[in-house]
Write the structure tokens for this entry.
Amino acid sequence: MVVSGAMRPRSLVGFVFALILLCALAALAQPKKGAGAAAKEADDKAAAVKSGEKAAAKNGEKAADKVEAAPAPEATGSDDLGEPPPKAPAGDKGGAKLSPLNPAANEFPDAGVAPPPPEFDRLLGDIAALRSRVAALTTTLFASKLRVIVETRADDARIAIDDFMKVELRVARVLEAELVPKSKKLLKLRVDAGGEHRTIVAGIAEAYQPEQLVGRTIVIVANLKPAKLMGIESNGMVLAASPEGGLPNLVSVDPSLPPGSRVR
């Protein structure tokens, strides 16, 4: 076949046009192929992540089963993981050294507190000396006050009027009198103390015969607690005066005073 010169340019143009069309189609097909690869790569990564999560969950369940099956650790001074606490390097004084068995021996790092001034020790000494002086003065004052109280009580045996008023003196009339068996000094008196009769044991047998006392008006201490003399309960005491080494003499009042009258 013989191609004429007029047909050659047209054929060349068509060939070039076809070549350009094929290149464009190839260029358009290339991005679609890349997007598909990227999507496939993303799906692969998601599957890998999901597989890793399943493996981690399975390992966690196994670890939990081991922890539950393991016995509780004893209190041996180790940390929560069962390992002994790390030892501080030799010569390291920066950290605190704590001893749970001997808290008094614990050492703590310097917190930056300034040392006390030199006057501090002198001040402590002055305080101690002052305490000693106060204690000595207190002892001296207490001893002096106690001595004054003792001397005052020894020199002044007088009582207050309130103390005297506690003693109840009353008029009594002797109704009966008799000697106490097996006694040379005691008489048993039965007296009228004003609405009540009392038995009084008095040591006046050496000065009076029993018949001398019947009908006599005397003074008694009416508020004494009962006491037993020679097996007889005495409820009161008669008043009597006696010279040094002499016989007793009963204190008597006007017979007209009724028994039970208060002596003031």
Summary: The two ends are 183 Å apart (CA to CA). Residues 162-263 form a domain with the OB fold (Dihydrolipoamide Acetyltransferase, E2P) fold (CATH 2.40.50.140).
